[in-house]
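Q: what sequence does this backbone want?
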């Protein structure tokens, strides 16, 4: 029996000419926590099948530590950060070789990109990343992207590749992110040990009610759970992309998604599609500090036609320079916008709460009347 096609999924999936696929450690490893070469080969075959349809694919892959466990003869994941970094360093070489061998059997190459948050915070490095990925697509190669666990201390302790996958999706302005996990999608209730339950097939709007369904579970070998996957989905849908969360342990997940089958949970795009520059400002670079503004300033900024002026600022938080990305919060602490600041922290504190004429007098020759210009401002959904 031929599975029925879903018209909404057809519209989303078939229109996406570039996919970002994220695969977690637990999908790639066996019960012993070590990398399973058969699963790598199956994933490479799936990626190649999607590319045979004329699409480009970038893969965000965990699994370096799991690969390192097998190579170093370790029986369990280390708790010590130094040993984790060593396992990642050894495992990354094995992981990329496994992908390259799997893709070579289908006439394609794997290309390794190891990234940290700093690569996304720097506008120049951000653009260089995008140019590299674009060039790899031209060569019909598959970018294999991973967190640089050997040097990114915070991420190996607390982070996950779900957010990295969302940032990569926004980097290359891709309309579809596919997150392959060990679960079949987002459940309406905890499915329990057996893993069966009622799956939410379509999420038109990722709100707090949907986030509450995630619980706090984590996979045994990885660092993220459904909560981190939903946060990644929100980051992508805010930027105008769609997300599918599905099981990577079931046979042929990518080709079934490509065929329009109701695989996993589909999250629909809800935000306005921003250009690359505004995606970087609002959804990628980490704020160096924050402006706290009054209610009138928030109302003005939320029209999308006003700039942030000094008179609306009630507090300046953090240490930043002119041109840095800053967050904009209301008095209750809710961050509702981000933008590029025209003032460094000392000058911003000196003019906060002042009218434009007073700010000019306070600083002497002020080059900018706007603290954050509307053209450099992004509202957060």
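A:
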């Amino acid at each position: 029996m031929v599975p029925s096609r879903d018209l909404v999924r057809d519209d989303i999936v078939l229109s996406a000419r570039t996919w970002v696929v994220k695969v977690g450690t637990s999908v790639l490893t066996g019960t012993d926590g070590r990398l399973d070469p058969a699963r790598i080969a199956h994933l490479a075959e799936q990626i190649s099948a999607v590319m045979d349809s004329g699409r480009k694919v970038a893969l965000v892959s965990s699994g370096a530590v799991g690969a390192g466990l097998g190579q170093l003869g370790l029986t369990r994941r280390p708790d010590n950060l130094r040993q984790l970094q060593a396992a990642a360093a050894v495992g990354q070489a094995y992981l990329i070789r496994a992908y390259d061998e799997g893709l070579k059997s289908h006439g394609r190459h794997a290309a390794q990109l190891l990234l940290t948050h700093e690569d996304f915070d720097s506008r120049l490095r951000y653009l260089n990343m995008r140019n590299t990925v674009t060039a790899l697509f031209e060569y019909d190669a598959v970018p294999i992207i991973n967190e640089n666990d050997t040097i990114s201390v915070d991420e190996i302790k607390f982070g996950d590749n779900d957010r990295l996958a969302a940032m990569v999706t926004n980097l290359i302005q891709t309309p579809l992110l596919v997150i392959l996990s060990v679960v079949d999608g987002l459940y309406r209730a905890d499915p329990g040990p057996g893993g069966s339950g009622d799956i939410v097939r379509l999420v038109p709007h990722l709100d707090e009610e949907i986030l509450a369904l995630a619980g706090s579970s984590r996979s045994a070998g990885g660092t993220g759970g459904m909560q981190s996957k939903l946060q990644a989905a929100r980051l992508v849908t805010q930027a105008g992309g769609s997300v599918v969360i599905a099981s990577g342990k079931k046979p042929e997940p990518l080709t079934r998604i490509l065929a329009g089958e109701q695989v996993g949970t589909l999250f629909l795009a809800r935000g306005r599609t921003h250009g690359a520059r505004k995606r970087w400002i609002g959804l990628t670079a980490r704020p160096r500090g924050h402006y706290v503004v009054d209610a009138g300033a928030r109302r003005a900024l939320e029209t999308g036609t006003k700039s942030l002026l000094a008179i609306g600022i009630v507090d300046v938080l953090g240490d930043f320079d002119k041109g840095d990305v800053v967050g904009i919060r209301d008095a209750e602490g809710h961050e509702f916008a981000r933008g590029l600041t025209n003032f460094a922290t000392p000058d911003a504190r000196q003019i906060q709460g002042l009218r434009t004429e007073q700010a000019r007098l306070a600083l002497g020759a002020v080059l900018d009347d706007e603290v954050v210009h509307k053209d450099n401002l992004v509202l957060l959904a």
